[in-house]
Amino acid sequence: MAVVAAPKPSEESNAKTTNQPNTITLRIARSNPSEGQESAFSEFQIPVQKWTTVLEAILYVKQNLDHSVAVRYSCRQASCGSCGMKINGRPALACYTKISELNSNIITVEPMNNFPIIRDLAVDFKQLIANHKKMKPFIIREDSEVTSESKEFIQTPQDLEKFLQFSYCIKCGLCNSACPTMATDTSFIGPQGLAQAYRYVADNRDKGKDDRLKIIDDSHGIWRCHFAGSCSHVCPKGVDPAMAIQLLRGYLLGFKK
Amino acid sequence: MAERLSNREGIKGMANPTRYGIERVAYWLQRLTGLGLLAYLIGHIYETSTIVNGKIAWDKMLEFTQTPQGHIFLTLVIGMCVFHTANGIRVMLGHGGIGVGKPGQPEYPYKAASLNYKQRLCIWVSIALAALAMMYGASVLFGD
Ligand code: HEM
Ligand code: SF4
Ligand code: FES
Fold it and tell me: Which atom of ligand 1 is nearest to the CA of A225?
């Protein structure tokens, strides 16, 4: 049986001093475009521990200092894709970024770029969702139902590995906000959508490859990607959209069947 | 206004190479050198076409390439040319899905396989080749 010893008083006081809350300055970009309110920063002093996340710091503001800060979040564990924002200049999930890893006493949070601002940190995902849907994010085949005559769709672990990582996308939009093409092209499908096109094309149960290749072979489609890799730099789930896009382009260029 | 509402980064964000690693720097350099080479090509056609204005105009043009400013300019063109070609080959292969890594189970901390050491090495080699070519070019140009 494991024995857990209670910390000796001396150790306990020691732990207290090392875990002493630090105070940081949290700067939140505030704006309300529909009311014509320009962006301005609100500053707050926040006590933080070494495990405090940026989202927790923002929620501290909402609970104790200014409840009107607009922020979208849900799972607090990098699963729902709601809390993407620009943290000290780089797109990241607020719930997945610890203050201590930023090595700064001033934390600036701003809404993600390349998404219209709704208010403060909350941005509009209409375009991302529309582009995601355009990629037909589902298995396409005639015999989609398993009947008593047909067999299950067999997939080996190797078959699975071909698309698994791309299916981990949580639609947080960080990739789209880091993408240099997205920065200037308002109609670009974006790394999120293109990676999802590949996720289904690479799935051996799917028969919709030609459909999807036609959709992405567009003037604002896959050819606008210059492989700058910024999407993969910021993706919090290891999806690696840049790889998916280049592999997808391999089909269109005839490098792959 | 529309720009502000959509919160797009715009050209300033597109052309900011500081935030997303060496791959974004390579993207930026490829654009810059591509545009630089295009400008050079146009200038070059203009320069060589001065010969239709007679020998004097042609010699005047040639004189510029003999000045220190001209040497520096040509050295830059050499560097742009070498980087753009070497990195361009990396990018073309990458665009075909070659050397961008293999899909697999992502493991924490989720380092992207497409941003692999081969890609980074090729970028650094392109930069190094450009630097070497510039040094050699400058030594020839200035060393007469
Ligand atoms: C053998 C030599 C060359 C190779 C291998 C090469 C390769 C490339 C590649 C792969 C790209 C696309 C990069 C991307 O997708 O972002 C590119 C872009 C470009 N290249 Fe070249 N290139 C070469 C020579 C030239 C020359 C001589 C010029 C100028 C006259 C030039 C001008 C450009 C321009 C303006 C761009 C567009 C830049 C951009 O959109 O980012 N290239 N080159
Ligand atoms: S690919 Fe990555 S960064 Fe892009 S939306 Fe999906 S999880 Fe987010
Ligand atoms: S709150 Fe769900 S991803 Fe951050």
Answer: 15
- Where residue A9 falls among pLDDT bands split at 50, 70, 90? low
Q: What is the ipTM of this complex?
A: 0.91
**CA distances in angstroms from B142 to B40, B67, B127, B137, B139, listed in the order given:** 20, 9, 22, 8, 5
DSSP A193-215: HHHHHHHHHT-TT---HHHHHHH
CATH topology of domain B2-141: 3 helical TM bundles of succinate and fumarate reductases (1.20.1300)
Can you give the pTM of this predicted structure? Answer: 0.91
Minimal Cβ distance to B106: which of A33, A117, A237: A237
Ligand nearest to the CA of B40: 1
Q: What pLDDT does A153 receive?
A: 81
| Span B71-117, pLDDT tens digits | 999 999 999 999 999 999 999 999 999 999 999 999 989 999 999 99
A96 assigned to some structural domain: yes
Domain that holds residue A89: 21-123
Total structural domains in chain A?
2
